[in-house]
Amino acid sequence: MIFLLLPALSGAQGHPRVSIDTNLYPYQSQVDSDTDLTFISNARLPGRFSYFSYVNFRGATTGDAFDFSRSEQNLRWAISPELPLDLSLQGVLVDGSGNDFTQLGIAWQVHNTPGFDGFFKRINLIYQITFQLKRFGSADDKAWQIEQYFKVKFPGISDRIYVSGFIDQTFDLDVAGELPSNPVVMEVQAGFRLWKNFYGIAEYRVNDFRLGNEYNLAAGIEYKHAWR
Questions:
Q1: Of 158, 217, 162, nearest in space to 187 by CA
Q2: I need a labelling partner for 124 at 20 to 30 A (CA). Which of 1, 38, 95, 143 fits?
């Protein structure tokens, strides 16, 4: 329903900047049960609000049971048009019972910060860091996160290429003894535009919560659609 409503909500108020990406990963190098279908949506909404989400599924291409894996729903509000800071409300939905939680934090758009913006523009890099400072609805309410996101393009080489990714690290989490004390989930994706809105993608993944199968390489196809 969110995917269907976003274009209407954004466009009706004169803010038609909405995108939905569909990623399908038929190839998994080591972990067949890893995410192989992802929907990603972004929208710039009225009143200095913005929205970002992803929904992960598994079993779309492996022949295993197709089911939901994880989703994050993010609503952000820019504190001021002059400041590169957003208040962040994040809902995290995880497969299984009692795994969902909510986080409050603040996001810093480093690439839009005066004094830094010129440098980031020259190297075609977007970089954002979010401090998820307070968690609700979880047995680990004391836990907090640092989320980093980046995307870089290479217009001097080709406008078809991009590299993007994220690094999420959780602190003060009550983890089992075998897990790292501050576990990391990381993905780095390289994309090459094949034709129109279709991209070939390769994605290197690290997931410290997946003990014994922390590393995986996925490859597949991405389709990008935007309402402008």
A1: 217
A2: 38
Rounded (5°) CA angle 137-89-208: 65
pLDDT exceeds 50 at position 16? no
Summarised one tens digit per residue, pLDDT across range 45-71 is 999 999 999 999 999 997 778 999 999
Residue 138 in tokens: 């979880």
Q: Which amino acid is at 190?
A: A
CB 208 within 8 A of CB 216: no
Residue in 39, 29, 30, 42 with CA at minimum distance from that of residue 70: 39
| Coil vs helix vs strand at 19 | strand
Instruction: Kindly provide the b/e burial profile for residues 184-208, where b requires at least 16 CB atoms within 10 angstroms of the residue's own CB.
Output: ebbbebbbebeeeeebebebebebb
Residue 133 · residue 144 · CB < 8 Å: yes
Mean pLDDT of the chain: 92
Q: How many helices (H) and strands (E) does the chain have?
A: 2, 12
Q: What is the pLDDT of residues 176-208, one digit of tens each?
A: 778 999 999 999 999 999 999 999 999 999 999
Q: For residue 47, which of 84, 19, 90, 76 has the smallest C-alpha distance?
A: 76
pLDDT over 80 (residue 5): no
10 Å Cβ neighbour count for 222?
A: 22
DSSP 3-state of 64: coil
Q: How many residues does the chain have?
A: 228
From residue 200, alpha-carbon distances to 162, 166, 219, 222 in Å are 11, 19, 8, 6
Closest CA to 197 of 57, 23, 44, 42: 23
Who's near 112: CB < 8 A, 6+ residues apart?
84
